[in-house]
Structures are given as C-alpha cells and as structure tokens.
Amino acid sequence: MARIIVVTSGKGGVGKTTTSAAIAMGLAKKGHKTAVIDFDVGLRNLDLIMGCERRVIYDFINVINGEASLNQALIRDKNCNQLYILPASQTRDKDALSQEGVGKVLEDLSKDFQYIICDSPAGIEKGAQLAMYYADDAFVVTNPEVSSVRDSDRMLGILSSKSRRAETNQEPIKEYLLLTRYSPERVKLKEMLSVDDVQEILSLHLLGVIPESKSVLNASNSGLPVILDEKSDAGQAYMDVVARYLGEECPHRFIDEKKGLFGKLFGSR
Amino acid sequence: MDLLDYFKIKKSTSASLAKERLQILVAHERTSRNQPSYLPQLQIELLEVIRKYINVDLDAISVNFEQDDNQETLELNIVLPDYQPK
Ligand SMILES: Nc1ncnc2c1ncn2[C@@H]1O[C@H](COP(=O)(O)OP(=O)(O)OP(=O)(O)O)[C@@H](O)[C@H]1O
Ligand SMILES: [Mg+2]
C-alpha cells in the first residue's frame, strides 16, 4: 500500500510544483519507489521541472480514459530509477478528471509504489479537490505572506471536510506545514512574518522552512529538482524535509540568518 | 506631548501588522466555515418577510450560527429603525 501525499496551498505560485519535484526525488533517492502526479490539467509544468518534457507521450487523462495503460504513461526519471512521473494533459481541462478515474489510477499505483505525490493545481476547485481527496498526508505549502497564509487556512478547512478520510470517518489527513520562500533577513527586519507567527496562526506541524533561493530558478532552468543541488540551501532544506517526514531527527537549519565568515569559523557546528 | 512620540507608540512593525490582521480574519473565517450552507438564503428570506411589516434596512439582520460540543444555536439579530412615527 502506498502512502498518498498531496502538495497543496490554495494560493498559486507559492512553490507546490517545486516542492513536489523535490520531495518525490528525495524519497526516491532514499530508496522508496515513488510516483509523482501532475494534477494541473491544462497547465502541466511538473514535466519541465523534472526535465522529462520531451519524453511525454501519454498523460494522466489518457490513463483515466483507458486510452493508455499506466505503464505506457509513467515516465521513469533519468536520474533515479525509483522515481516515475505521471504528466498532466496539456490539451484537456480539469473536467476531464473524475473522482472514480483518479481513484482507480491511485489504487493501481498503490500496488506497486511506496509513495505517491500529488502536485495540486492552485485554487479550491475541482482539480485541487481531486488532488487532495484520496490523500493520507498533506503538505501545505505556504509563503510568509498574508494572502498565502489565509488561503492555506482555507485549504485546511477543505482537507478536514471534503476528503475521502473525512467522508468515511477515518483518521483525518495528517497535515504538515512547509514554509517556503522564507527570508530570514527580512524576518529579522520585521518585514516578513516569522515561522512562529505563521505557526501561531495555522497551528500545524512544521515539516520545514525552505529559504528564498536562487538555486530554485537555476534548478528549473536545467530541469533538475532542486534537491539534487546538494550544495544549495534550498536543496539541503528539502533534504531535511524528506528526512523529517521519514521520521529522522533533524534540526531546522534555515530559519536564522546565514552565518557570516566569523560565525562559520566560530559557530558551534 | 510631542506628536511624533504619539505616532511612535502606535506604530507597529510591518510583520506584526500582518500577523494581527491575519489572526482576526482567520478566526472569523474559521467560525463561518462550519456554518450550514442554507444560512445566506435563510437570511435573505427572513429579511423579505420582515420587510413586509417593518421598514428595516437591507443589512438590518444578522444571523449567527454557533456550535459547541452539545448544542447548536441560531442567533437572529434584527435592528429596528430608530423610531417609528405612527
Ligand atoms: N524557495 C524558493 N526560492 C525562490 N524561488 C522559488 C522558491 N520556490 C518557488 N520559487 C519560484 O516560484 C515560482 C512558482 O513556483 P512553483 O511553480 O513551484 O509554484 P506552484 O505553487 O506550483 O505554482 P502554481 O500554483 O502555478 O502551480 C517559480 O518561478 C519558482 O522558481
Ligand atoms: Mg504548480
């Protein structure tokens, strides 16, 4: 049985696809057979971020409609043979997704995979609701900014009422906070909401803080999930997130300002 | 008293302002989240009935739904006009 993780946010452009690509790669690199599904039907992008855009033949909708088998549609990642990508359709719209169709694909994948990551589209409409419907865990991607926090809270309400787990009175979806595009410098200047501020409002389990980082754009330029950039702060932050999710003890590293040379020489690590 | 000092006391940081606004908004949205979906329609219909008899403002009614462990309360508040010369 696979564990199904939805990466969701409500608000658009906060880093869901970046996060989905990174944690899928992170889990696969740790030896877990992982599939990552693009639910953003009509606006597929995960293929670009994963660097497999030229290998897309069939997509999620083809599988739902029985026009292709899962094996035909799944793309094996070129960097990690434990990782598979199921791209979204670029020509259809979200109405092509159906609850039964999605359920069937997830059920089939569950037989063979350990983790299934669902990259949700923005918004709270059908696409976003189907991405989270079957989830066991939710990574709520939030930026330290008022509209993102508000939308995350809205999403939490939907997670707790409109999921399969809620509707069948099972144990609720486990919700985790992933605070991304964080600038410790701006937090220090009191220009940006701090981790503590956001947690006080959302009261979620903090899975990790991903700093605002140039490495994210570099990674997307080259079609490599940022977690593969092991020297980068964002890459390391995502590695920590994966480790924490898998139950490893892992202190938060990117909440405070970067240490200068002096701090590095005399710091405690 | 120096006018500048006055503003200094009131001035809060940009982040704390954001936090305050969010706390209020999120608390408000959480309470309305559990409300039954018929509430807005109920409010409209109640207003229609009342306006047949009393000339109240369109926003004179507030309907509040509250829920705790063992009961649900529907609170109806109608603000009547200041005075009604007969
Ligand atoms: N930690 C980060 N540092 C800097 N830039 C980032 C970071 N995370 C994401 N971005 C940038 O933010 C933009 C949006 O990211 P992404 O596509 O992952 O968001 P999304 O939530 O999937 O968007 P959508 O809602 O459109 O699907 C991208 O340009 C990405 O490079
Ligand atoms: Mg996206």
Oligomer: heterodimer
Across the major sheet of chain B, the strand order is: 1-2
Spatial shape of chain A: globular
DSSP, total strands of chain A: 8
SS summary, helix count of chain A: 13
**Helical content of chain B (DSSP H or I, runs of 4+):** 40-55%
What is the CA-based Rg of chain A, rounded? 18 Å
Strand content of chain B: 15-25%
Low-confidence stretches of chain B: none
- Judged by helices, strands and strand pairing, the structural class of chain A is alpha/beta
Q: In terms of per-residue confidence, which ranges of chain A show pLDDT below 50 for 5 or more consecutive residues?
A: none
Gyration radius of chain B, in Å: 20 Å
* Helix/strand class of chain B: alpha+beta
Describe what you observe in this structure.
The complex is a heterodimer of chains A (269) and B (86). By secondary structure, chain A is α/β, with parallel strands linked by helices. Chain A has 13 helices and eight strands. In chain A, a hairpin with a 6-residue loop joins strand 3 and strand 4. The model of chain A has no long low-confidence stretch (mean pLDDT 94). With 86 residues, chain B is an alpha+beta fold. Helix content of chain B is 50%, strand content 16%. Chain B is built from three helices and two strands. In chain B, strands 1-2 form a two-stranded antiparallel sheet. In chain B, a hairpin with a 4-residue loop joins strand 1 and strand 2. Chain B is extended and about 55 Å long. The termini of chain B are far apart. Bound molecules: adenosine-5'-triphosphate (ATP) and magnesium ion (MG). Magnesium ion binds next to helix 1 of chain A.
Compile the SSE list and pairings.
The complex is a heterodimer of chains A (269) and B (86).
Chain A: E1 3-8, H1 16-29, E2 34-38, H2 46-50, H3 60-64, H4 70-73, E3 75-76, E4 83-86, H5 99-110, E5 115-119, H6 126-133, E6 137-142, H7 146-159, H8 164-167, E7 174-182, H9 184-188, H10 195-202, E8 205-211, H11 214-222, H12 233-245, H13 261-266
Parallel strand pairs in A: 1-5, 1-6, 2-4, 2-5, 6-7, 7-8
Antiparallel strand pairs in A: 3-4
Chain B: H1 3-10, H2 14-33, H3 39-53, E1 61-67, E2 72-78
Antiparallel strand pairs in B: 1-2
